[in-house]
Amino acid sequence: MHNEEVTADLKRSFDQWHEYDSVRETYAKKHGISRSLIDVLAILQSVPEECTQKFLIEHTLLPKQTINSMVTSLSKQGMINLTESTTDRRRKNIQLTPTGKVYAQEIVDPIVKAEYQTMAQMPAAERQQMITSLDRYIQAFAQRVNAI
């Protein structure tokens, strides 16, 4: 029923993804924060003015309560400002304060630089092969899951 080689390849690909996550988790712990906070800070560094909790939820895939807790904590620490949205008064825009920008640069920039350098050291053909293969896998997987 199952091809052992395919099963082994699937397991290895999951193991690789977990190894990648583990590297990011180790980096976060080294800085006394969660991997999720790194993701949120990275988004806050790069988004336009209209960044809401909903935007963070959609782009991190983190639960609403987790994002809410992070936003509350960052606000209390003076890392972010919450201002009324120009498009929806019920929502608050989230922006890094000058202190938050410095903190995000100290935490996010080194790991982003490491990822960039890692990708840059790979030959272009290998990068494209990796990206194309992952795209094909995700598209095929999504089609199968959507058909369930």
Sheet with most strands: 2 strands, antiparallel
Strand order within the widest beta sheet = 1-2
Average pLDDT = 93
Architecture (CATH level 2) name: Orthogonal Bundle
Q: Please report the number of helical segments.
A: 6
- List SSEs in N-to-C order: HHHHEEHH
Distance N terminus to C terminus? 19 Å
| SS class | mainly alpha
Helix content: over 70%
Strand content: 5-15%
CATH topology annotation: Arc Repressor Mutant, subunit A
Silhouette: globular
What is the domain total for the residues?
Answer: 1
**What is the name of the CATH superfamily?**
Winged helix-like DNA-binding domain superfamily/Winged helix DNA-binding domain
What does the radius of gyration come to? 19 Å
The CATH C-level name is: Mainly Alpha
Strand segment count: 2
Would you identify the regions where 5 or more consecutive residues have pLDDT less than 50? none
